[in-house]
Amino acid sequence: MKIKRLMITCLLAVSVLGGKSQAQDLLSNVYGRDYQLLNGKWGVIVDLYDQGERMQVYKNRKPQDNKQFYEYSFDGGLVLNVPSDFNSQIPELKFYEGTVWYGRSFDTPKTDGKRLFLYFGAVSYRSKIYLNGEKIASHEGGFTPFQVEITDKVKQKDNFLVVKVNNTRTTDAIPAMSFDWWNYGGITRDVMLVSVPQSYIKDHFIQLDKVQSNLIRAKVTLSEAKPGINVQVAIPELGIRQNMTTDANGIAQATIKTKKLQRWSPDAPKLYDVTITSESDQLNEQIGFRNLYVKGEDIYLNDQPIFLRSISFHEEIPQRRGRAFSEADATMLLSEAKELGANMIRLAHYPQNEYTVRLAERMGFLLWEEIPIWQGIDFKNTATREKAGRMIKEMVMRDKNRCSVVFWGIANETATSAPRNEFLKHMKQCCLDIDSTRLITAAFDLVRFNRENRNFEMNDSIINILDMVAINKYMGWYHDWPLAPDQAVWNVAPGKPLFISEFGGEALYGKHGDAEVKSSWSEDYQAQLYKDNLEMFKHIPNLRGTSPWILFDFRSPFRFHPHQGGEWNRKGLVSDQGQRKKAWYIMRDYYNQKKTEQ
């Protein structure tokens, strides 16, 4: 087993063991553990009519004599790469929504009494895990990690692992029946076999106080709920060696004073080496420290007001027409955002790969993370609420030590209703139960022009629970201008910071035409639309950031026009082939100007 030191933080899962749901002990910083990657080539069976469970393909049976045969095999058939989606690897699966069975064999090294976990970075959307013919776990949610302990189930040689994957859309899912991105299915992130000591460091939360710049708050949880175990948090560069002991729940906590701290910021993304040690385990981490709070209509980072120069992108490589899954993919996406002049990324519309989150932190990006509560959600459905609550907890648990994460997003474009309000209040509480240091936000498309008052307004009481109010408004595209952009006064969420989380319009790269004709699908119209929106933004008194929709053209079955190629949302500032449109340069200049104003 190869030791990796990528130092990635804790990952949460909810597994179904023996058919009953229960929470697993959660590994912290899984990429800093001893692990064996189970990526690579997997044999697959495409199960259009969902007959695999009836046929027990998970048992991977082989004929034992000349009278036996089985009407399935993982050998000699289709092969898929892991991690990746199945839609982009086999042309016939481009639009496929259904079941695919993945199978592969593996051996395990001698573990010297250590515990073994299978860890999945993400499987989209539903999964069942079988080891040596036995069901050991299941998970729902295509963008968060999960794990299952296999210490007593694994053999040293000739183990066979089977993963049933299904990406069928359902009304009670998160997201639900329709969403404006490609429904990629498959094992889309790393699969790992991880070893830990019998008693190990299960979780840690080490961050700067929300307001005070000289107080680090540390909380370490061990897998063993036992008092009196010695724990140490060390930050050598700051001369910190904080000794603690666990309580009866196996939790050790301390408030650590420091005077020499260099705070993390987009301009200086400083990370410190942090070592967490217990009597039987040790974890090495890299953590940044920064203060974050809202005061009135301003957002303060390290006690200075900040304007959020943001951009969004999907977890997709458009040139490959498939899911982004590697650190190289993350580098491509984030580098284009850096060239634009962005200091923040809204990771749309779901938790993206941990490679992306870690690299964004090193590159100096603030982050907004959210789960895909995106239109059409059944807010009255108890099962849907439970799924959403688990997903948002998985997201927060994974990334709560990443100082670059400044917003937890709890919804996108949801209509007002009492069930919706209760649902979103529950989402907020799920975040706060784990992490009270970040800001809570949500994006709305409910701003309307009041012709009597001659301004833009929004009536939605849910904004009262948010730290920042975010608005999706497509003036000049989905909404015609009721008056000139320089006369467009906004009166939305006064007293709170306001963020334009989506705006823009579609253009086909290289197509030129009348800048005033929307149906031209031209770069010229898109460019003028951006100029008009930037003019309007001058008249939003509490505007504290913008995020155009979107960095790259992306795949979506929502799109039917020939200029959209039957599958592309063309709102990108950059084409699916990586070509920058005119609007890209307009936003770059705007962000450069905003940077000089701060």
From TrEMBL:
GO BP term, example: glucuronoside catabolic process
Domain Glycoside hydrolase family 2 catalytic: 294-591
Protein's organism: Bacteroides muris
UniProt name for this protein: Beta-glucuronidase
Domain Glycoside hydrolase family 2 immunoglobulin-like beta-sandwich: start-end pairs: 200-290
EC number: 3.2.1.31
Signal peptide: 1-23
Example GO molecular function: beta-glucuronidase activity
Database matches in SUPFAM superfamilies: (Trans)glycosidases (SSF51445), beta-Galactosidase/glucuronidase domain (SSF49303), Galactose-binding domain-like (SSF49785)
Family: Belongs to the glycosyl hydrolase 2 family.
Annotated ranges, domain Glycosyl hydrolases family 2 sugar binding: 73-197
Family matches, as InterPro entries: Beta-gal/glucu_dom_sf, Galactose-bd-like_sf, GH, Glyco_hydro_2, Glyco_hydro_2_cat, Glyco_hydro_2_N, Ig-like_fold, Ig-like_GH2
Keyword check for Lyase: no
UniProt keyword list: Glycosidase, Hydrolase, Signal
UniProt xrefs under Gene3D superfamilies: Galactose-binding domain-like, Glycosidases, Immunoglobulins
Pfam families per record: Glyco_hydro_2 (PF00703), Glyco_hydro_2_C (PF02836), Glyco_hydro_2_N (PF02837)
